[in-house]
Amino acid sequence: MTRVLHITSGDIAGENLKQSGVTGDLLVWHDILYEGPRNPGWPEEETLLARTQFLDEVTDGGLGRQHILETLRDQYRKLETASGYDAVILWFDACLFDQSMLSHILACLKIKGVVTPELICVAAFPGIEPYNGIGQLSPQQLASVYGQRSPVTAEQVGFAERVDRAFALQDLDEFALLAKYDAAPLPYLPAAVDRWLKEQPDPETGLGLLEQLALDAIRSGCHHPWEIFRHVAAHDTPPQYWGDSTLWAKINRLATLSPPLVKIEGPSGKLPQWISQGGVESYLIYPL
After folding, report:
1. Cα–Cα distance, 125 to 132 (Å, whole number)
2. How far apart are CA 285 and CA 269, in angstroms?
3. Which Pfam families match (predicted)?
4. Which of 40, 14, 266, 66 is nearest to 170 (CA)?
5. d(Cα 86, Cα 3) in Å, to the nearest integer?
6. Taking the model in full, what pTM does it have?
7. 168-184 in b/e burial notation, b at 16+ Cβ within 10 A?
8. Dmax over Cα atoms in the chain, in whole Å?
């Protein structure tokens, strides 16, 4: 019997894959690989500890350091077993979040001797508009695109290693080159890198694009977090790389700048970023 390992990002996509009828084991990757401390390629334990601290701070303690560290260790342990499978299928979106993850996983798979994974990257799907990624696809729709997988080439792996190094080192000069790369071996990576460049602090305002969009929404009269979410989603360009927890973190930062740009009213001075911390229904945000 053929042993297949499916690797994707996002619990929703992972759960839908389980229900799609596509057979094989599943690894759902959890990390924010477009920022934070790390080395290119396979991480040492020191890197995992540094990333644990970073992710704990990014999520404002909502997940817990031990949980984060064990999640990171477990997913790399699982990735180490990939060479024992007959096929490794990568399911990733065209957005910044997924493309940075894809480049890292391809670099890691090469280190572990997996040189022939297959890739599924769906940039659009009939009837879904705006389309942000495979998390929007039903189990049946995911099964329908399984035949679109294609072998990853050596050129694509080499390009992924270059991109992974740029993200690990936060090399802005390399980002500028990658964002303008014509006919890239991995075609969605240049746009993803360009989106990350837009998140760098603006020389005049000090804000990245997502922070600016959130501030614009609040100043336009959106005060409830979900109103802000919908406004920002409507004004950002698909594919959307961020979710609610990322946006809440940006709003929290706007409230803690010196001087603050917004005021958060609610049970605490910050929006909770994870279900374990409670919902955002009782919060309101106002411009200052």
Report:
1. 10
2. 10
3. DUF1835
4. 40
5. 5
6. 0.94
7. beeeeebbeebbebeeb
8. 63
d(CA 195, CA 42): 25
CA distances to 35, 67, 155, 186 from 40, in Å:
12, 23, 18, 18
Tokens 């560290």 map to which residue? 69
Residue 278: both structure tokens together: 């409670």
Structure tokens of 18? Answer: 């389980």
Number of alpha carbons in the 13 Å side-chain half-sphere of residue 172: 5
Unique residue bearing structure tokens 């080499």: 158
Domains parsed from the chain with CATH numbers: 4-198 (3.40.50), 209-287 (1.10.10)
Q: Any residues with CB less than 8 A from the CB of 161 and at least 6 apart, and which?
A: 40, 41, 103, 106, 107, 110
Instruction: Tell me the backbone φ, ψ of residue 90, rounded to 5 degrees.
Output: -105, 125
Per-residue confidence of the chain (288 residues) as pLDDT tens digits? 689 999 999 899 999 999 999 999 999 999 999 999 999 999 999 999 999 999 999 888 878 899 999 999 999 999 999 999 999 999 999 999 999 999 999 999 999 998 789 999 998 999 999 999 999 999 999 999 999 999 999 999 999 999 999 999 999 999 999 999 999 999 999 999 999 999 999 999 999 999 999 999 999 999 999 999 999 999 999 999 999 989 999 999 999 999 999 999 999 889 987 765 568 999 999 999
Cα–Cα distances (Å) from 10 to 48, 91, 137, 233, in that order, read 20, 10, 12, 18
Q: What are the structure tokens assigned to 164, written together?
A: 């992974």
Q: Give the DSSP H or E segment for 53.
A: helix 45-58
